[in-house]
C-alpha cells in the first residue's frame, strides 16, 4: 500500500537548481532503517543507567532523605542526593553579554540544595547497572519535607500579575492613540476574554543524555536544539574547559523548543557520570519529561476590538497574563502578532506575567504567538459576526500597508494573495454565512479562517565549506537536525551555489567540534545557516576562481573573475572552463576550504538596524472545516488548507511537512491538549500519552498546504523560517469553524465537547 | 518495577494451585493493564502467574445459538470473529473502540474484565486514593474529575470502570465462568463488578485465586450497537459510552437492552431505562424520558456535571439510530 499526498508544486521551475525541489531528506534512509542512533542509543563498556527521584511537594525543604532501601537493591551503584553529592557551580545569571546564559531551563542547582521549588523537581538520582534497577530503586528513596506555602493555582494568582519587561528582541507593550476611548466610542465592538491551558512537550524521543568523562574531558550524546550554549553552560557548571567538552547530537527526535534549554536530565546525567566515574545514560521516562522539562504557559487574554460599520478597526486592545516559574522561564510574546496584523489607529497591547511555584515555562512552538493568535483571530471572527461581514473581507479591510505601530515597511507581505488563493482552493464561496446552516447528513458543518503570523529572524552561524580533490563538497556547521530536513536544505543550497550534484555534497552537523551553528529555535536556523553557507560558498568560489586564473594550463587563465560561474561541477566562463577535480589537480591541492565566522555583535547590529527599516514575517491564511455531532458536540476537523507567504521555499517536501506538522500541533492545542496541574499542589496528574491527549491519526484530516513562493527581499535566498508559522492561527481557525457550525464561541482552549453541550 | 517471581503453569489446575499457594500472586493475561500498573508501582505482585499458555483461546458456538468465548481470546481476534461481527455487532464495535491496535492484539477477554480504573489520582501514586491505598482519601472528589463517574459512586471513590468491552457484555447479558480450587461457578457479568461503597479497593466478586476462564453470550438480540464519545477520535477512554440493543414491532419497543460506560464504577446496566422503554413507543420523547430516568440518580461533581446531559444525548441518539435502522429493515 502506498500513501500518496498531493505535494505542493515544486517551488522553482529551474531544473538546474536544487533549491525549491522536493528533495528527499538525506537522513531518511538512516532513520527508516534504524541506523540512525539517538542519544540514548550509544553504548559504552561501563555504561550505567540513571533514574530520577521527583519531589512530591510544590515548595519546601528536604529535611531528610532515606536512601538505605534504594542502596540495598542489588545492582545499585550510587544514590545521589544533596547530602551526598558535591554541588555543581550555580547557573549564571541571564545576561545579554553572554547569550549562553539564557540556556538554563531553571536556576535550581539540582542536588546542590535542600530546597524544593516545584512538585516534580528532581531531588535524587539513582545510578544502577540496569535501567530497570535504577527506576525501581528510585521508587524506594524516601524524602521527608518541611512544606512551605506555594502559589500553584494560575486562576487564583493571575490577578497578581505584573507588567512584563520588554527585552531587546521582544517588546511587552505598545500604545498608539487612545484605544480605550476609541473602543467606547466604536459603533461596533467585541470585548472577549480567552483562556488557554498549560501544555507539555511530547517529542517522540523523550529527553536523553549519555555522558562519559575522561578526566576533565566530557563526551555527551544529547538531543539538543542548542549545542554551543549547552556546551558553554556545562563548562561553567562543572568548572572544566569548554574545549574539552564534546556534544554529539546528530539526530534529535523532535524538539519543538523543549530541547532548546538545558534541563535537569542533562545536568544530572553529567553529574552522575562525574560522581560515579561511569559512563551514564539518563533517558527520561515520559513522566519525568513532564516533571522536569518546561512547557507552554497557561494564559488568560483580553481582546477588544472597535470598528466602524464598514469594518474598519478603530480600536485594538490585546492584553495577556502568562506565568513563569519562580525559578525560571520567561513571559511569552502573546501580543506579538497583534503588533503587526491590523491597521487600527488606536492600539493598546500589554503583556503581564505572574510567578508561580511551578516548573519553569519554556519555548514551545511559537511561544506566545500561537496562543496570542488564538485570541486575536477569534476576536476578529467574532467582530465579523457582529458586523454581519465575511471574516476574510473584514481582514482585508484592515490589512495594513505599513506596520501599524512602527510605520516600517513590510519586507514583503502577501496576506491578500494568500487569502484569495486559499478561498478559491478551499471553496470558501460555497460557505453559507449563517451559523448552523450547513449540514452533511447528521453532522453540523462549519468553516473558519484565521491568519498565521511569525516573525522572520536570523542569528549568526559559523560555516566551513571545503572542496575535496575527489569533487566532494563538505559543508561543516554544528546544525541541529530534529527531523525537519536541516542538513538536506543546506546541501541543496550549497549544491546550487557551487554547481555540484547534490549527491556530492556532504553536510556535517550535530557536533560541537564543528563551527558553531545557530540554535534551532525561533524559526531561525535555516535562514541563519543559509546566510553562512552562501557567504562561505562565495568565499570558496573566489579562492577557486583565483586558483583557476593562475593555474598552469587552466582554460580560465586571464578571464575576469566576474565572468566565472560555478556550474556543472566546475568553474566556467562562456564555453571555457574546468571541473573542480581538474582545478585542484592543476593547482596541486587536495582540498580548498573557506570559512565564515558568526559574530554576536554583528548579529545584534544587523538585527537592530533592520528592525528600524522592515518588519519581516512569515504569514499565512488557514482554512478549516469541522464537523460537529449535533447530539454529543464532538468536533472533528474534516478539511484543512494553509496558504503561506513564507518567502522562497527551499525544499517542497520538507517545507510541506514542517507546515503540516505545525498545523497538527495546532489541532492538539485547539481540541485536546491540556496539562492538568492540580491547583492544590502543583502536581501534573496526566503525565502520559494516554491521558495527555495529543491528536492521533484519526484526528488529523488530509492537510493541504500551499505557498506563494515569493522571495523575501531582505532574507538570505529570500527564505523565511517556517518552523513555527504553521501553528499560529490554527486554534482560532478551528474555534471559528466551530462557531460557524454551532453558533457557539468557545474562548477557552481546548475546545472539548462539554464546552459546547 | 518491583522485582517479582514469574511462573507459567502448563494447565489450569497448576495455575489455580500457584495462585492459591504463592503469596501475592496475580494472573497475567495480555499484560496491557497489569504490566502498566506494575511499572507505575500501583500493582506490586510478588508472583505473576502467566496464564497465556492455558487452552482458553477459542470462540465456540453454543447449542442455544449463543457463543462461548475463552478468557484468553485476544480483543482483536474477538472483534474480528465473523460470528461476533454478524450477531453481536455491539461487542465487536466496543472492542474496536478501545485502546489501540497494538494493545488489542495483546489484551485478553479475561484481563479486560478486570481492567482497572484510569482515574488520574489512582495513577498518581503521590495522590490520595482510597482504591489504591484504602483510607487515604480521594483527591478526585475536589480535583480533576472530568472523567469520573456520576452513577453508583460513593464518598470514598468516584472512579469509572474503563472497559468498553464490558459495557457491551453487560448489555448482552453475558455470563462469566470462574474457576477456583473449589470448582467452577457462573456469574452474570452485571454482578461481577462491585460498586465502591466504603471499600473501593474491592472491585469484583472474585475470591482470591479465582480465574476467569470463559464468557458465555446468550443468543443475540436483533440489532445492537456501541457508541463511544471521547475527547479524540481514537485512543481515549470514554467520556460516555452506550451499548444498546433494540427490537421494535409496530412502533412499540418489544426489547430494549441498554448499558452505559464512562459514567459508573462498573459497566452500568440501565435497567430503569429498559423498563420504561419496553412496551412504549419507539420515539425520541420516550427515549429521552428513559434516559433521564436512568440518570435521575446522578451525583455529579464540578468537572463531570456535563456527563448527565451527554449521557442522555448519547442514549437518545443511539436508540434513535437503532430504531431508524430497524424501520429501514
Automatic annotation (TrEMBL), chain A:
Task: Name the UniProt key words of this record, in alphabetical order.
Answer: Molybdenum, Oxidoreductase
SUPFAM superfamilies tied to this protein:
CO dehydrogenase molybdoprotein N-domain-like, Molybdenum cofactor-binding domain
**Which Pfam family, just one, is annotated for this protein?**
Ald_Xan_dh_C
GO MF terms on file? iron ion binding; oxidoreductase activity
Identify the residues that the record assigns to the Aldehyde oxidase/xanthine dehydrogenase a/b hammerhead domain, covering every copy: 33-149
Database matches in InterPro entries = Ald_Oxase/Xan_DH_a/b, Ald_Oxase/Xan_DH_a/b_sf, Ald_Oxase/xanthine_DH-like, AldOxase/xan_DH_MoCoBD1, AldOxase/xan_DH_MoCoBD2, AldOxase/xan_DH_Mopterin-bd_sf
Q: Does the keyword Oxidoreductase apply?
A: yes
Query: What residue stretch is flagged as signal peptide?
Result: none
Asked whether the keyword Oxidoreductase is assigned, the reply is yes
Specify the protein name.
Xanthine dehydrogenase YagR molybdenum-binding subunit
Species annotation:
Nonomuraea fuscirosea
UniProtKB/TrEMBL annotation, chain B:
Residue ranges constituting the FAD-binding PCMH-type domain according to the UniProt record: 1-222
Give the Gene3D superfamilies listed for this entry. 3.30.465.10, CO dehydrogenase flavoprotein, C-terminal domain, Uridine Diphospho-n-acetylenolpyruvylglucosamine Reductase, domain 2
Q: Which GO terms describe its molecular function?
A: FAD binding; oxidoreductase activity
Any idea which UniProt keywords this protein has?
A: Oxidoreductase
Query: InterPro entries annotated for this entry?
Result: CO_DH_flav_C (IPR005107), CO_DH_flav_C_dom_sf (IPR036683), Diverse_Substr_Oxidored (IPR051312), FAD-bd_PCMH (IPR016166), FAD-bd_PCMH-like_sf (IPR036318), FAD-bd_PCMH_sub1 (IPR016167), FAD-bd_PCMH_sub2 (IPR016169), Mopterin_DH_FAD-bd (IPR002346)
PANTHER family reported in the protein's UniProt record = OXIDOREDUCTASE (PTHR42659:SF1), XANTHINE DEHYDROGENASE SUBUNIT C-RELATED (PTHR42659)
Name of this chain's protein: Xanthine dehydrogenase YagS FAD-binding subunit
Traced from the root, the source organism's taxonomic lineage reads: Bacteria, Bacillati, Actinomycetota, Actinomycetes, Streptosporangiales
Amino acid at each position: 500500500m502506498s500513501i500518496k499526498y498531493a505535494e505542493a508544486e515544486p517551488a522553482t521551475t529551474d531544473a538546474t537548481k536544487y533549491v525549491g525541489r522536493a528533495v528527499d531528506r538525506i537522513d531518511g534512509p538512516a532513520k527508516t532503517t534504524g541506523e540512525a542512533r539517538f542519544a540514548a542509543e550509544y553504548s559504552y563498556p561501563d555504561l550505567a543507567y540513571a533514574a530520577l527521584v521527583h519531589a512530591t511537594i510544590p515548595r519546601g525543604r528536604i529535611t531528610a532523605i532515606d536512601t538505605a532501601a534504594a542502596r540495598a537493591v542489588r545492582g545499585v551503584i550510587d544514590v545521589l542526593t544533596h547530602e551526598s553529592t558535591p554541588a555543581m557551580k550555580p547557573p549564571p545569571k541571564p545576561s545579554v553579554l553572554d547569550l549562553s546564559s539564557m540556556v538554563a531551563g531553571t536556576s535550581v542547582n539540582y542536588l546542590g540544595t535542600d530546597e524544593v521549588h516545584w512538585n516534580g523537581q528532581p531531588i535524587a538520582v539513582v545510578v544502577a547497572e540496569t535501567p530497570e534497577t535504577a527506576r525501581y530503586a528510585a521508587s524506594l528513596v524516601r524524602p521527608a519535607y518541611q512544606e512551605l506555602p506555594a502559589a500553584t493555582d494560575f486562576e487564583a494568582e493571575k490577578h497578581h500579575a505584573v507588567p512584563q519587561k520588554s527585552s531587546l528582541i521582544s517588546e511587552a507593550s505598545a500604545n498608539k492613540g487612545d484605544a480605550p476611548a476609541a473602543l467606547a466610542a466604536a459603533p461596533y465592538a467585541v470585548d472577549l476574554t480567552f483562556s488557554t491551558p498549560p501544555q507539555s512537550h511530547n517529542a517522540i524521543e523523550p529527553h536523553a543524555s549519555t555522558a562519559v568523562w575522561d578526566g576533565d574531558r566530557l563526551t555527551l550524546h544529547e538531543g539538543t536544539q542548542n549545542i554551543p550554549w549547552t556546551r558553554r553552560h556545562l563548562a561553567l557548571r562543572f568548572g572544566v574547559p569548554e574545549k574539552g567538552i564534546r556534544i554529539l547530537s546528530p539526530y534529535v527526535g523532535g524538539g519543538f523548543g523543549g530541547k532548546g534549554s538545558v534541563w535537569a536530565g542533562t545536568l544530572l546525567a553529567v553529574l552522575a557520570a562525574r560522581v560515579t566515574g561511569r559512563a551514564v545514560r539518563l533517558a527520561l521516562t515520559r513522566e519525568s519529561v513532564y516533571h522536569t522539562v518546561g512547557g507552554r504557559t497557561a494564559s488568560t487574554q483580553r481582546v477588544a476590538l472597535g470598528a466602524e460599520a464598514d469594518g474598519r478597526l478603530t480600536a485594538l486592545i490585546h492584553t495577556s497574563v502568562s506565568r513563569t516559574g519562580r525559578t525560571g522561564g520567561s513571559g511569552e510574546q502573546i501580543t506579538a502578532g497583534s503588533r503587526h496584523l491590523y491597521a487600527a489607529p488606536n492600539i493598546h497591547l500589554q503583556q503581564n506575567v505572574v510567578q508561580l511555584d511551578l516548573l519553569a515555562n519554556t519555548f514551545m512552538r511559537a511561544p506566545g504567538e500561537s496562543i496570542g493568535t488564538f485570541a486575536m483571530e477569534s476576536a476578529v471572527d467574532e467582530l465579523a459576526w457582529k458586523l454581519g461581514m465575511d471574516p476574510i473581507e473584514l481582514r482585508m479591510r484592515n490589512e495594513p500597508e505599513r506596520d501599524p505601530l512602527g510605520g516600517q515597511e513590510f519586507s514583503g507581505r502577501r496576506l491578500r494573495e494568500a487569502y484569495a488563493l486559499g478561498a478559491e482552493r478551499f471553496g470558501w464561496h460555497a460557505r453559507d454565512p449563517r451559523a448552523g446552516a450547513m449540514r452533511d447528513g447528521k453532522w453540523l458543518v462549519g468553516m473558519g479562517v484565521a491568519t498565521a503570523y511569525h516573525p522572520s529572524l536570523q542569528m549568526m552561524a559559523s560555516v566551513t565549506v571545503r572542496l575535496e580533490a575527489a569533487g566532494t563538497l563538505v559543508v561543516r556547521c554544528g546544525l541541529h537536525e530534529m527531523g525537519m530536513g536541516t542538513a538536506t536544505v543546506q546541501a541543496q543550497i550549497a549544491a546550487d551555489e557551487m554547481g555540484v550534484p547534490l549527491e556530492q555534497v556532504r553536510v556535517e552537523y550535530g557536533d560541537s567540534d564543528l563551527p558553531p551553528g545557530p540554535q534551532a529555535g525561533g524559526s531561525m536556523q535555516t535562514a541563519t545557516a543559509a546566510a553562512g553557507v552562501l557567504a562561505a560558498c562565495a568565499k570558496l568560489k573566489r579562492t577557486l576562481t583565483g586558483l583557476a586564473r593562475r593555474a598552469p594550463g587552466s582554460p580560465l587563465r586571464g578571464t575576469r573573475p566576474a565572468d566565472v560561474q560555478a556550474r556543472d561541477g566546475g568553474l566556467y566562463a562562456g564555453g571555457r572552463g574546468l571541473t573542480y577535480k581538474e582545478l585542484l589537480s592543476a593547482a596541486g591541492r587536495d582540498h580548498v576550504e573557506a570559512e565564515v565566522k558568526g559574530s554576536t555583535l554583528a548579529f545584534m547590529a544587523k538585527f537592530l538596524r533592520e528592525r528600524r527599516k522592515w518588519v519581516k514575517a512569515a504569514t499565512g491564511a488557514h482554512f478549516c472545516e469541522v464537523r460537529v455531532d449535533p447530539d454529543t458536540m464532538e468536533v472533528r476537523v474534516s478539511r484543512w488548507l494553509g496558504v503561506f507567504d513564507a518567502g522562497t521555499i527551499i525544499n517542497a517536501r520538507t517545507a510541506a511537512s514542517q507546515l503540516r506538522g505545525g498545523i497538527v500541533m495546532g489541532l492538539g492545542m485547539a481540541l485536546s491538549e491540556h496539562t492538568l496541574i492540580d491547583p492544590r499542589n502543583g502536581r501534573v496528574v496526566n503525565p502520559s500519552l494516554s491521558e495527555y491527549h495529543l491528536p492521533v491519526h484519526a484526528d488529523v484530516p488530509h492537510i493541504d498546504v500551499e505557498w506563494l513562493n515569493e522571495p523575501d527581499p531582505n532574507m538570505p535566498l529570500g527564505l523565511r523560517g517556517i518552523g513555527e508559522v504553521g501553528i499560529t492561527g490554527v486554534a482560532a481557525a478551528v474555534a471559528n469553524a466551530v462557531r460557524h457550525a454551532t453558533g457557539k464561541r468557545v474562548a477557552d482552549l481546548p475546545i472539548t465537547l462539554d464546552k459546547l453541550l | 518495577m518491583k522485582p517479582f517471581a514469574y511462573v507459567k503453569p502448563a494447565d489450569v489446575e497448576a495455575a489455580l494451585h500457584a495462585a492459591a499457594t504463592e503469596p501475592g500472586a496475580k494472573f497475567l493475561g495480555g499484560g496491557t493493564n497489569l504490566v502498566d500498573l506494575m511499572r507505575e508501582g500501583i500493582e506490586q505482585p510478588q508472583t505473576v502467574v502467566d496464564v497465556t499458555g492455558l487452552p482458553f483461546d477459542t470462540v465456540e458456538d453454543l447449542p442455544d445459538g449463543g457463543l462461548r468465548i475463552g478468557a484468553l481470546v485476544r480483543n482483536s481476534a474477538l472483534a474480528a470473529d465473523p460470528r461476533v461481527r454478524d450477531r453481536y455487532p455491539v461487542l465487536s464495535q466496543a472492542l474496536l473502540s478501545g485502546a489501540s491496535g497494538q494493545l488489542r492484539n495483546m489484551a485478553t477477554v479475561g484481563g479486560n474484565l478486570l481492567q482497572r480504573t484510569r482515574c488520574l489520582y489512582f495513577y498518581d501514586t503521590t495522590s490520595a486514593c482510597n482504591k489504591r491505598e484504602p483510607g487515604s482519601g480521594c483527591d478526585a472528589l475536589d480535583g480533576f474529575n472530568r472523567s469520573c463517574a456520576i452513577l453508583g459512586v460513593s464518598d470514598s471513590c468516584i472512579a469509572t470502570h474503563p472497559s468498553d468491552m464490558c459495557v457491551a457484555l453487560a448489555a448482552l447479558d453475558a455470563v462469566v465462568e470462574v474457576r477456583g480450587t473449589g470448582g467452577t461457578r457462573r456469574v452474570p457479568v452485571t454482578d461481577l463488578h462491585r460498586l465502591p461503597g466504603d471499600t473501593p479497593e474491592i472491585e469484583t466478586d472474585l475470591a482470591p485465586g479465582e480465574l476467569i476462564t470463559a464468557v458465555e453470550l446468550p443468543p443475540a438480540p436483533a440489532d445492537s450497537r456501541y457508541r463511544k464519545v471521547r475527547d479524540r477520535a481514537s485512543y481515549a477512554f470514554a467520556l460516555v459510552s452506550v451499548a444498546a440493543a433494540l427490537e421494535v414491532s409496530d412502533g412499540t419497543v418489544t426489547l430494549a437492552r441498554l448499558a452505559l460506560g464512562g459514567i459508573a464504577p462498573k459497566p452500568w446496566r440501565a435497567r430503569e431505562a429498559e423498563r420504561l422503554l419496553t412496551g412504549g413507543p419507539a420515539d425520541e420523547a420516550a427515549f429521552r424520558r428513559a434516559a433521564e430516568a436512568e440518570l435521575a440518580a446522578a451525583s455529579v461533581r464540578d468537572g463531570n456535571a456535563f456527563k448527565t446531559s451527554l449521557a442522555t444525548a448519547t442514549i437518545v441518539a443511539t436508540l434513535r439510530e437503532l430504531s431508524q435502522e430497524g424501520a429501514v429493515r
